[in-house]
Amino acid sequence: MMLHVAGLETAYGDSQVLFGMDLTVAAGEVVTMLGRNGMGKTTTIHSIMGITPPKRGEILFDGAPIHGLPSHRIAIAGLGLVPEGRQIFPNLTVRENLIATALPPRSKAEPWDLARVLALFPALTGRLNNMGSQLSGGEQQMLAIGRALMTNPRLLILDEATEGLAPLVRTEIWRVLTGLRAADLSILIIDKNIAALTRFADRHYIVERGRVVWSGSSAQLSADPSLQHRYLGV
After folding, report:
1. Is the pLDDT of residue 233 over 90?
2. CB distance 179 to 173 below 8 Å
3. All structural domains of the chain with their residue ranges
């Protein structure tokens, strides 16, 4: 397994959020975390990325422990994050946002650089000298994905990949992600569009109150509507 998370317990002060989270992502696999708001999905990602270090449990990337490492070391190890809310640098230009996170390629085969990111998101080409704060929400999400790709990750993590985006932009984001999957990039993704996720992903984890309560394939999730009603409905 590329990513192996076992027994993760994470708290904010005295408030515990994760109670033994377990998940895995294999090389070239697309995996989702599903669940209602406030169930621990983002906290799991923050724990993996070192933003909110876990109190207990282990996180292995390519067999090496990364729990306890600072976030920049985890990014250098090969994990790229597209955070919830995009969190681009508003006072930097699009070009500066992209090159600020650039890391050397991990192989000679098609590294992610400025030209390749702009080819993936042509809408950003004419906005290179615009500040991040001057972009639309859709452009900001494209920039956030491009910024993560500039780290040349082996595992791309997306928190709320299409939340708040216009339908045409959502379609474009799914097209891009489908292309990344076809290029064998491993992906861990959170999103609320269950129909799109079951077409896109290999496996799913449903998270309830800081624990995994179900896991299975897209076919298994689609075949059991009660799962969505029980764990994913409002």
Report:
1. no
2. no
3. 3-78+155-232, 91-153
